[in-house]
Amino acid sequence: MRTIDQSFAQAREEGRAALIPYITAGYPDLEKLAGLVGALTRAGADIIEIGIPFSDPLADGPVLQKAASQALSQGTRLSSIFEVVRSISRQAPPLVFLTYINPVFRFGIERFMASAREAGVQGLIIPDLPWTEGASLRTAARAQKLALIPLVAPTSTPAHLHAIRNAKGFVYGVSVTGVTGAREVLDAGVERLVRRVKAAVSLPLAIGFGIATPMQAQQVGRLADGVIVGSALVEEIGKEPRRAEENAFKFVTELRQALRNNTAKA
Amino acid sequence: MATMRVPNRLGRFGRFGGRYVPETLIPALDELEKAYHDARRDGEFRRQLRALLKDYVGRPTPLRRADRMSAELGFEVYLKREDLNHTGAHKINNTLGQVLLARRMGKRRIIAETGAGQHGVATATAAALFGLTAEIYMGAEDVRRQALNVYRMRLLGAVVHPVESGTRTLKDATNEAIRDWVTHVRDTFYVIGSVVGPHPYPMMVRDFQSVIGREARRQVLSLLGGLPTHVVACVGGGSNSMGIFYPFRKDPVQLIGVEAAGEGLNSGRHAASIFMGEPGILHGSLSYLLQDEDGQIWPAHSISAGLDYPGVGPEHAYYHDTGRAQYGAATDDKALEAFRLLAQWEGIIPALESAHALAWVIEEQETLRREGARVLVNLSGRGDKDVEQVSRLERRDAHAND
Ligand SMILES: Cc1ncc(COP(=O)(O)O)c(C=O)c1O
User: How big is the A-B interface in CB pairs under 8 Å?
Assistant: First the structure.
């Protein structure tokens, strides 16, 4: 199984940023999760984020809110997500879960980490768990060789950048102050954010929130080590649920193409 | 377990509390914590707040024996009249404090969530007083249930945003307010309406609401020459209850929080997070939560929109664990009965929220009579906002019985 570090290393060797698409487990339905991960893999995803739907996703914009609520109203359960992921993780690039803290807490922190590892997941992103609250989760994650991926925002202080310097996996840079969702123009603050993080932390830096088009992916790919695309892909998947895999494949292929053409690394 | 001085530096009340918010907000919470810390020690800030509470809100609110209710029940009942505050509930104690703080911090944009609309009205009022504009998030279902308060907020110059996501009630309005705050964090002050949310909010709101308990303690001591045996208050997020409990916490007094049992604790339609919930994390803190095995939040239900919330403040969760307070629950029906009884006994129409506290006292009357109890009830708000809803319910029931 390829690791997160290896994925970033390979992209770097190829002179491009890593592509990290996000999908919500259970949207449009859980049967499609395996096929969707397969499509993203074929399209050249370097790492795949699988979102665990939550009833109160306060860091998400309308598209991912809707995806989560549809997934839950169809009865998507944590146990069945683990099951599907276990069956596909060997043939996929590194998988990371994106989950809110309460499902992890309720399931039991140690039990959750053990189940995630057993399913072949390599990392965890928890948007409502700031670094200062994460000590016990980091210990539990480390015990299972999982990376608890730190987030960095435009408002983050130098103290925060210092605190995360020994984290594992990669740094998730939130491009804007705000929630997930496509933006028409990229925030001008991205460059500054990248510069600040790069000066403080040696881990790879992937940028997410608001990246919606191949053009934007290319722009961000020139600055950062990884590009995360969520809402735009989920929207693409939701347009025609019966053709979810085809459409996801097509969109992610375009994103990947845009990154391939990246030559000038700023 | 001994009840310690809380919260600690990390905003923990025992194992509860904390700061579970996106990284983006952490610097804003640090800034708020520091600003609050400084304001609390600033004589000028405290003088300003005290003057507003006195001359604008009308504090101190009266505390008086409910004579006919006491005679009916066979033990003494005293009412702390938060319903007589300007805007009709205890919520204004907190919003004036927070809006004063916002001004001190140079934040001109005010946002808030609201359930029944009482906190929205109190925030809009405080904002109007200082020439600021408040934007209020309110679940679309609550906008429908509490049309009068929506009108009041708009009259006060606030912008009301109906929230269509999720269950379209208070929890979803809170999600949306947090999304707004994450987006506009640099110039926006989020006025939280109860002792919930990330640190320092539960502590700060408790402190602002403690004026209720400080006055009440002084008033009962001078009226009775002693303490009550019980202090009873309804618990939604828990601000009016914590406000009256806190100054009594070291006294030999039973503190009773009354949650909303909705259609019954076994009906699956209630809002009794302490009584029926499990520890969990929502809206920034760890506390008791109504949730399923996967940690998905259950929609709460109560006849009173102000109690219709699946969580509760972390300090209550802590008091529950240490045994410093006891928690009971009252159903929709019992609250409605208490609503009518207080009107007839005392000429006071209570808020449906406050009626839950009264309902507990009525329900437990035999025990309380036997103990020779002297019960202090926090009447957190007045029922004008609920009259239309109750009369609608009566008409519906009359139909059903035809
Ligand atoms: C009159 C009244 N009492 C009680 C509450 C419940 O809130 P808390 O538990 O924070 O006092 C509300 C909330 O809207 C209210 O309006």
Answer: 117
State mean pLDDT over B201-225: 98
Burial class (CB in 10 A: 0-12, 13-18, 19+), B30: middle
Rounded CA Rg of chain A = 17
Q: What is the 3-state secondary structure (H, E, C) of B191-234?
A: ECCCCCCCCCHHHHHHHHHHHHHHHHHHHHHHHHCCCCCEEEEE
CA distance B170 to B120: 11
Question: What is the token pair recorded at B214?
Answer: 């400080």
Radius of gyration of chain B (CA): 20
- Residue pointed to by tokens 């602002």: B208
- Of B354, B234, B233, B238, which Cα lies nearest the Cα of B285? B238
Tell how strand B109-114 and strand B188-191 pair up. parallel
**Is the pTM value of this prediction over 0.80?**
yes
Selected for mutation to probe chain A from B33, B296, B297 (highest A CB count within 10 Å) is B296
Q: What is the pLDDT of residues A94-149, one digit of tens each?
A: 999 999 999 999 999 999 999 999 999 999 999 999 999 999 999 999 999 999 99
CA terminus-to-terminus distance, chain A: 31
Q: What is the pLDDT of residue A1?
A: 86
Q: How confident is the model at residue A263 (pLDDT cuts 50, 70, 90)?
A: low
CB-based contact, A202 to chain B, within 8 Å? no
Dump pLDDT digits (tens) for B133-160: 999 999 999 998 888 999 999 999 999 9
For B199-331, where are the E strands, in sequence order?
A: 230-234, 254-262, 278-282, 284-289, 325-331
CA nearest ligand 1 atom 14, residue: B306
